[in-house]
Design brief:
By secondary structure, the protein is α+β, with helices and mostly antiparallel strands. It has 3 domains: 1-124, Translation, Eukaryotic Peptide Chain Release Factor Subunit 1, Chain A (2-Layer Sandwich), CATH 3.30.960; 129-270, Nucleotidyltransferase, domain 5; 285-379, Ribosomal protein L30/S12 (60s Ribosomal Protein L30, Chain: A, 2-Layer Sandwich). It contains 10 helices and 16 strands. It has helices at residues 6-13, 31-54, 59-73, 117-120, 161-178, 192-214, 227-236, 256-284, 295-303, 342-352; strands at 20-26, 85-91, 94-100, 107-111, 129-133, 140-145, 148-152, 221-225, 247-248, 291-292, 307-313, 319-323, 328-332, 340-341, 356-360, 372-375. Strand 6 (140-145) and strand 7 (148-152) form a beta hairpin. Helix 2 (31-54) runs antiparallel to helix 3 and helix 6 (192-214) crosses helix 7. The two termini are 41 Å apart.
Length: 379
């Protein structure tokens, strides 16, 4: 899995136990550094084991905790098709891992919750969108979801010009027979204007099926294909969310993965709009009680369901202990005793109470703060 959806994170935080271990490791797709990734993971596991032993865990309990991970890491298949990083989550009742498209700092985290904040940027913009490959040979559409790319099947519509012409010639022939005419109609290769008319008609039929399907989906559509076909499709289009930019030129030989990657460079701006809109909303609320950049206040507000939108800086950590019964936060300089990562704690609380979350570079967080929130209501 190369991206992580919101519902995946929700399931993960519901799998927590008394003690939870999170490991992050930068990985490499190939080369000598890639061969060293398994060694780095072994070293990281050993560091984590040592800390658990220092916390008073029995050696057998520690070994049992890491058994599934170690067995998985010894499989050759595990190290194939790596991305830029690994995020690993385990406790005594759960083990999961994600191959992620960002390179995290090598680190481990032992606490009452899993460390999920590094995953937040992976679910910012990765909504579902579609790519329509326009081709006279075979027009097809792909649904690009965060965890898979799938072909959308269309029934009862020609997907190539050859099929279209056969169908259309037959249809015309039947009409002429009904009207008492001959059956010598042909439309292929008659010259520019006639060919263009057939191409337009072919794309109108495609457009009808695509729009009918997409009205149930509502996500953006990226077009791919020669300029003429894209122009004719836009002329026929009735769907509200076809993006202005297209993948230009013949894309017949591109794989679904290549199409998805090219389409993402176009669709990314669409998904970025929600973030920019919420940042603007934060800025427009300056001076009101509906926003905050105070970590202690946000931790308390997130726990009690007050946070509407949370802006989480990637790579920033602040430690402390939250006492819900007293509604008090004690800050700490390090992760010791009962202290946890308070930014992660606030993020988990916000997820559990249905808030919108964005994982952003520090420079993009409103007021360049350690954490920022828009509240649902005033205190």
């Amino acid at each position: 899995m190369s991206v992580v959806r919101r519902d995946t994170i929700e399931k993960l935080i519901n799998k927590t136990d008394d003690i939870n271990v999170t490991l992050f490791l930068p990985t490499h797709k190939k080369g000598e550094e890639g061969k060293q990734d398994s060694i780095r993971l072994k070293n990281l596991i050993q560091k984590t084991k040592n800390e658990l032993l220092e916390k008073g865990w029995k050696e057998q309990r520690v070994e049992d905790l890491f058994k599934d991970l170690i067995e998985k890491s010894e499989e050759n298949q595990f190290w194939l098709h790596q991305d830029k990083g690994l995020a690993i989550y385990l406790n005594e009742n759960h083990f999961d891992y994600f191959k992620i498209p960002v390179s995290p700092e090598e680190d481990y985290y032992i606490a009452e919750n899993f460390l999920v904040t590094p995953l937040l940027e992976l679910q910012n913009h990765h909504g579902t969108y579609h790519v329509l490959l326009l081709s006279q040979s075979e027009t097809k559409m792909f649904k690009i979801a965060p965890d898979e790319t799938s072909l959308v099947e269309f029934e009862s519509v020609p997907t190539s010009m050859e099929e279209h012409l056969k169908y259309h010639v037959h249809e015309k022939s039947m009409q002429q027979h009904s009207a008492g005419g001959g059956s010598n109609a042909t439309f292929h290769g008659q010259g520019g204007d006639e060919d263009d008319k057939e191409l337009e008609l072919f794309l109108k039929h495609i457009e009808n099926k695509v729009t009918k399907y997409l009205k149930k989906e509502n996500g953006p559509l990226v077009l791919a294909g020669p300029d003429k076909m894209v122009a004719y499709y836009r002329k026929a289009n009735k769907y509200f969310n076809v993006l202005d930019e297209a993948i230009k030129g013949n894309s017949d030989n591109k794989s679904p993965k290549e199409l998805a990657e090219e389409a993402w460079t176009i669709a990314a701006d669409y998904f970025q709009e929600d973030i920019e809109s919420d940042i603007e909303r934060f800025n427009n609320l300056q001076g009101s009680e509906l926003i905050s950049t105070e970590v202690e206040e946000i931790v308390k507000s997130a726990y009690f369901g007050k946070v509407d939108t949370l802006f989480v800086p990637m790579g920033t950590r602040q430690f402390g202990v939250f006492h819900p019964d007293e509604n008090r936060v004690d800050m700490s300089e390090s992760l010791n005793g009962e202290a946890v990562d308070l930014i992660n704690y606030a993020a988990i609380s916000a997820i559990r109470t249905g808030s919108t979350l964005y994982g952003l570079p520090q420079s993009q967080v409103p007021k360049n703060s350690g954490l920022a929130a828009i509240y649902r209501y005033k205190s």
